[in-house]
Specification:
3 domains, five-stranded parallel beta sheet, alpha/beta, 22 helices, single chain
């Protein structure tokens, strides 16, 4: 590990920037997830713990009912032969019974391993094979089919438990059990089985493995991150107290269960505070279900907020001139005074009155339409969010904040305290977390939430976490000297230099490009080169709406992306981005000189994105090396053919001739002023 600077930033109530503190990790100090479940069943037995919408109807379970259901499931697992230390894969969309399954597995002394439900068979095979899963709990026929397809590779897999029986009646049930059968087995379990469950539950301690979650694998195969009960519970306690979460709160569970954030929000924080977790009926009904529930606590990655803003702007473009005029007038006012009001700052009485009128006519109805009318705390993380997007939602009166975290940290490294929320930082160290930046600019942390190890990968564990517990994040950043807030620049491995020595930070530029609603994704290249070039994915919904309003016909993404007028529109967005970059003293050399609109959307199924939609930059650069070379070599167009994966798993290819667009690069503003 590299030498570190002498100063350390530590999460504390007063957020003093130079406070150093040793973290005491007392074994089992805060309990385990099964213990928290029993505590809630005793203290708040009649409060709702889970809701699920099925067939258009919301069903609800209290904490007492969840405890009974989970206990029965744990007995059922024992009847199936689950042993202490076994790994159980859990695959499917957010459903209460799948969450109960994970806690039931813990009660039986085993380890749940959530798997991304949209993972293709090959990705799923890697996780199940690497984790040596003995059992799999699958949500429906689709997930069962994927496991059956790869079962020849899974030497340890013995049995699949399925939740939704539709389509599975005629399957060979030699190794299949329905969820109902598992519950029946648990309900009729004998005294010996019940005593065995009590013994195993009593053996669970703070250092017992709570869950194994796989990283997104941006640079290679995912790693299995082993997190203990102390990791999860301590992180959940500290973060809940930081934001004042309580049993009366309500959250929506819609992000992948295999993602660490969902595990913390839907199990960790929920079990610590006792708040209710609501599961939507499907992805198609998500927005309607969000409006019906009206959660008080909400998390979404930047892409969700970007999509919401895109839909808002599309609707306003189709609205009457009067509605557009009112919207633009009041939103301009909200952007000017809204963030100040949200931070508790003072504004003129007249400005406050205009904002209240805007809240009555525009902001309030818009929050209600989005399902945000009851939001007390909202978070975004995973990628940097555009300042314009961030400020837009805060200007509506939504307490949207940023956090910085990792799977290896049990999510939380830094958070933004109320009253100190800004778009350009990720806040101060979370309570109990120490953060420091080494001489090369890489961010390191240690905390009670720090992971135990990478499963079956001691070399990666040793290279990531040192003997004192400090974890290298792989991100480049720095602390602001006056506020103590952390700013993240980019992935450390992605930060480089142009051939002229100027700084190259691709993620920073990509986020600026994605501020524009017509740009869905961007990938920038330029390390070691004399210029920066970019791949662009257009947003089909936004650009499609624009095309319809302008009488431009199209029948597919590829046809729309190749339209010259679309190229002109995207070129204007790139020019605006360059103008902004020209004012940045450190990153003015990252202006885009050439770009190409890709003929296909970057897709996780094609290996170009992770399941959490992070760009796999190295893979994209290798896969599209002909396009990268054409951009840098000055070619005007290029013929290319790319392999794609269809929804049913079949492989195919897309061929296209892509036009390369040239963009003027601006002289740095500071240099112009000096001249």
């Amino acid at each position: 590990m590299p030498k570190h600077r002498a100063w350390v930033r530590t999460g504390s109530e007063n957020h003093e920037p130079n406070l150093t503190m040793r973290i005491s990790q007392t074994k089992n100090r805060e309990g385990t997830i099964p213990e928290l479940l029993q505590r809630n069943a005793a203290r708040i037995p009649d409060k709702p713990a889970n809701r699920e919408k099925e067939f258009g109807i919301w069903q609800s379970w209290t904490w007492s009912e969840v405890a009974d259901e989970t206990h029965e499931l744990a007995l059922g697992f024992l009847e199936l032969g689950l042993s202490p230390g076994d790994h159980v894969a859990v695959i499917g969309r957010n459903r209460p019974r799948l969450y109960w399954s994970m806690v039931a597995v813990q009660m039986a002394g085993a380890v749940p391993v959530p798997v991304y439900q949209d993972a293709v068979a090959e990705e799923m095979a890697y996780v199940l094979e690497h984790s040596e899963a003995r059992f799999a709990v699958a949500g429906d026929q689709e997930q069962v089919d994927k496991v059956i397809e790869i079962q020849d590779r899974l030497q340890r897999l013995e049995r699949i438990v399925y939740l939704d029986p539709r389509g599975l009646r005629k399957y060979d049930h030699t190794r299949l059990n329905s969820f109902a059968e598992l519950q029946e087995m648990g309900g009729s379990a004998g005294e010996n089985t019940r005593k065995e469950l009590e013994r195993r539950s009593a053996d669970i301690a703070g250092d017992t493995t709570c869950v194994m979650l796989y990283t997104s694998g941006t640079t290679g195969n995912p790693k299995g991150v082993v997190l203990s009960h102390s990791n999860i519970v301590s992180a959940s306690r500290a973060s809940s107290e930081f934001d004042g979460l309580r049993a009366e709160d309500s959250a929506l569970a819609y992000l992948p269960m295999a993602w660490v954030g969902d595990f913390i929000f839907s199990i960790g924080q929920s079990y610590w505070t006792g708040f209710c977790v609501n599961c939507p009926e499907s992805a198609d009904t998500l927005l309607a279900d969000l409006r019906e529930i009206g959660p008080t606590y909400y998390f979404a990655p930047p892409r969700v907020f970007e999509s919401m803003l895109t839909q808002i702007m599309i609707r306003m473009e189709d609205a009457s001139w009067l509605k557009r005029k009112m919207f633009n007038h009041f939103m301009a006012h909200a952007r000017r005074v809204g963030p100040t009001l949200m931070s508790g700052g003072g504004v003129r009485p007249l400005d406050r009155m205009i904002y209240l009128l805007g809240d009555l006519l525009i902001y309030g109805p818009l929050r209600n339409a989005l399902g945000f009318s009851r939001i007390r705390i909202g978070y975004t993380a995973g990628e940097a969010i555009g300042p314009e997007i961030f400020d837009f939602f805060r200007s509506l009166g939504i307490n949207l904040k940023q956090l910085y975290g990792q799977t290896e940290a049990s999510v939380f490294i830094t958070q933004q305290p109320d009253g100190e929320v800004r778009a350009d930082t990720v806040g101060v160290p979370s309570p109990g977390v120490e953060v420091r930046v080494d001489d090369e600019g890489e961010v390191h942390y240690r905390s009670p939430g720090t992971f135990v190890e990478y499963y079956k990968n001691p070399d990666s564990t040793a290279s990531t976490k040192d003997a004192e517990g400090w974890v290298a994040t792989g991100d480049a950043g720095y602390f602001e000297s006056d506020t103590g807030h952390l700013r993240i620049v980019d992935r450390a491995k992605d930060v480089g230099r142009m051939s002229n020595g100027s700084l190259f930070a691709p993620k920073y530029v990509e986020n600026k490009l994605k501020f524009h609603s017509n740009i869905l994704e961007a990938v920038v290249f330029g390390d070691g080169r004399d210029s920066c070039v970019a791949f662009i994915n257009i947003d089909l919904a936004a650009v499609g709406n624009w095309a319809e309003r302008n009488g431009i016909p199209y029948s597919s993404y590829q046809e729309l992306a190749a339209n010259p007028k679309v190229c002109e529109m995207i070129a204007e967005h790139v020019r605006e981005t360059n103008e902004s970059l020209a004012t940045d003293e450190k990153l003015s050399g990252c202006q885009i000189s050439r770009f190409v609109i890709l003929h296909k959307e970057l897709d996780a199924d094609d290996g170009e994105l992770t399941r959490t939609r992070k760009v796999r930059r190295r893979i994209i650069e290798e896969k599209f090396d002909d396009l990268v070379n054409a951009l840098h070599d000055g070619e005007e167009e290029i013929r290319t053919e790319t392999e794609v994966t269809y929804e049913d798993g079949r492989k195919g290819s897309i061929a296209a001739t892509l036009k390369i667009c040239d963009i003027a690069v601006n002289a740095p503003v500071a240099r112009m002023a000096a001249q």
